[in-house]
Amino acid sequence: MKAYIFPGQGAQFVGMGKDLYEQSEQARELFEQANDILGFRITDIMFDGTIEDLKQTNVTQPAIFLHSVILASVLGDTFEPGMAAGHSLGEFSALVACKALSFADGLRLVAARANAMQKACEIQPSTMAAIIGLDDFTVEDICHRISDIVVPANYNCPGQLVISGTIAGVDKACEELTAAGAKRALKLNVGGAFHSPLMEAARVELEHAIVHTEINAPICPIYQNIDAKPYTDPALIKHNLIAQLTGAVRWTQTVKHMLEDGATSFTEVGPGSVLQGLVKKVDRHIPTESAVI
Fold first, then answer.
1. Catalytic residue numbers?
2. What is the pTM of this model?
């Protein structure tokens, strides 16, 4: 069974989506529709902007979303997912590609999500760090024992977990995790503590938008970040999307569940190939590829 996976923030690069725009009339129409919905020409930034322009949260998230969902749309009948999942932001891409959300509604939610997250980041300085070479339990235990806010945020693959929280909490956790045997504890250049309780203000803001957005049953099960389980019920999908901003991205568990449920290959739809590398860390024998038109 073919599994399709959709990347999240960090996969962006200058020039992303330009080949789609130039090669496909359908893609051009969708990109121009996106420019109208967003109220600025995001295509100019994606195709010819600077990497600094592209790093702005209100640009990054819609840009990755657009690259993914427009590529899926252009694939046409060759896009036949038996199951799908997205990493953080990529969950919205998966839902649009699999017909649970309309293109316009998905883009509006992603734009609202980016703006809400940016505002939450400005409320309190916060950060994230990648922890390499420790088991999940040790990371969870040490984070739990620290008095400042710090939590596991991204279970990316075995031996690679991202923590998220206040600057003091993440600094203290990095110190203790290194002492516990982590090969690396690397602070990330991000705007804030994504997928942590510090995103509560963003969760509340986005909840209103999600509740008032129509979500339909997708064409295949969507494995959602919050618990790594497959969903097709629109009400449950909405509930999980709302919980996603303050909950962990359980990507390792997602890939394992997809494999257990019969995934025979993984196709990454969108910029980059980061997710393929993470899948290989779970099962190095499983075939992976990037979607191409």
1. 88, 195
2. 0.96
Taking alpha carbons only, the member of 289, 271, 211, 283 closest to residue 6 is 271
Residue type, 233: D
Strand partners, 85: 5, 223
Q: Give 116-150 pLDDT, tens digit per residue.
A: 999 998 888 899 999 999 999 999 999 999 999 99
Judge contact between 82 and 3, C-beta under 8 A: yes
In this predicted model, what pLDDT tens digit does every residue of 253-266 receive, in sequence order? 999 999 999 999 99
DSSP, collapsed to helix, strand or coil, labels residue 170 as: helix
**SS3 per residue for 71-82:** HHHHHHHHCCCC
Q: Which residues contact 29 (CB under 8 A, 6 or more apart)?
A: none
Q: Which helix (H) or strand (E) holds 109?
A: helix 103-123
**C-alpha to C-alpha distance for 272 and 80, rounded to whole angstroms:** 21
Cα 128 from Cα 61, distance rounded (Å)? 18
Q: State how beta strands 184-187 and 230-231 pair.
A: unpaired
For residues 5 and 226, give the distance between their C-alpha atoms in angstroms, rounded to a whole number. Answer: 16
The CB density around residue 13, as the number of other CB atoms within 10 Å, is 14
Type of residue found at 92: F
* One-letter amino acid for residue 130 of the chain: A
